[in-house]
Amino acid sequence: MPQLNPNPWFFMMLTTWVVFSLMFQPKLLPHTPTNHPSNKTQAPSKTTPWSWPWI
């Protein structure tokens, strides 16, 4: 079963993963998120019971 033999593809997958992580990690790490989480507390919502007209 050739798919269980890691020799032909494992080194290539590992090399590709290392190259991509070395290329993209420095580009992605300096970005800051645009939507910062707010520190406001959520006010509990006041729910009213639904009046079903057909009951």
TrEMBL record:
Residues annotated as transmembrane: 6-24
Membrane topology (UniProt): Single-pass membrane protein
Region (Disordered): 33-55
Gene Ontology biological process terms, A to Z: proton motive force-driven ATP synthesis
Main location: mitochondrion
A single GO cellular-component term on record: proton-transporting ATP synthase complex
Domain of life: Eukaryota
Source organism (scientific name): Phalcoboenus australis
Subcellular locations according to the entry: Mitochondrion membrane
Record key words, sorted: ATP synthesis, CF(0), Hydrogen ion transport, Ion transport, Membrane, Mitochondrion, Transmembrane, Transmembrane helix, Transport
One Gene Ontology term of the molecular function aspect: proton transmembrane transporter activity
Annotated protein name in UniProt: ATP synthase complex subunit 8
InterPro entries: ATP8_metazoa (IPR001421), ATPase_protein_8 (IPR050635)
Family recorded in the similarity comment: Belongs to the ATPase protein 8 family.
